[in-house]
């Protein structure tokens, strides 16, 4: 793929490699379409389990393709959930991995983290940041409570700043994808319809955002200690 992986473009502070808002929106839609296809249009449902910028490849026109199915799980169409050993990349793993009983909504959670990274232009775990800002999800929750989400919009990109209102609307979608209760997260197909403007999607929201923060930290801690886990590192 001519333009490599998504992380090369969204974590790079070089203005020459910076993506404008329209391109980022298109990439988000392409990822959503890819996941919707895996979850609903294949003969057997495919849960990717390792959605992250390193596994999103871009062609010469910045069309995005979901790649690397080394950790994916096949389940039957009539299965609502599956029990499996923990697998994925710490920082992108949904809270329900604590029970090892998962659905395709773990991909929706990972998608939410990736979209947040696209909007903010930084990694979800950034060791170069101050301690209180190191975890992007925690920072997102805090700014959400303070009503200061605008602070998170990629400050190295003037076009993102110019479209801040639309970016903020996308952050609401991110919040719906990152809910603790997996049943409340939207399906990928409903998100595709929302992004394409073909239908209004009503999203149920969790009340306990603090619980989400606690579980996120626990998942990362558990992911580093469970012996039979299948964890994916940087590509």
Write a compact overview of the structure shown.
The chain has 235 residues and is mostly helical.
Strand order of the largest sheet: 1-4
- Provide the succession of SSEs: HHEEEEEEEHHHHHHE
Task: Just name the CATH architecture.
Answer: Orthogonal Bundle
Tally of strands: 8
At the fold tier of CATH, the topology name is Transferase(Phosphotransferase), domain 1
Unreliable stretches (pLDDT < 50, length at least 5) are: 209-228
> How many domains make up the coordinates?
1
Give a quick account of the main beta sheet: strands, pairing sense, barrel closure: 2 strands, antiparallel
Strand content: 5-15%
CATH superfamily: Transferase(Phosphotransferase) domain 1
In helices, the fraction of residues equals 40-55%
Given helix and strand content, the structural type is mainly alpha
Integer-rounded radius of gyration: 17 Å
- Give the N-terminus to C-terminus distance in angstroms: 15 Å
Mean pLDDT: 86
Q: Give the CATH class.
A: Mainly Alpha
| Anisotropy-based shape | globular
Helical stretch tally: 8
SSE order and pairing:
Blueprint: H1 7-10, H2 21-41, E1 45-47, E2 56-58, E3 64-66, E4 73-75, E5 82-83, E6 87-88, E7 101-102, H3 105-120, H4 136-146, H5 158-162, H6 164-177, H7 188-196, H8 209-223, E8 230-231
Helix pairs in contact: 2-3, 2-7, 3-6
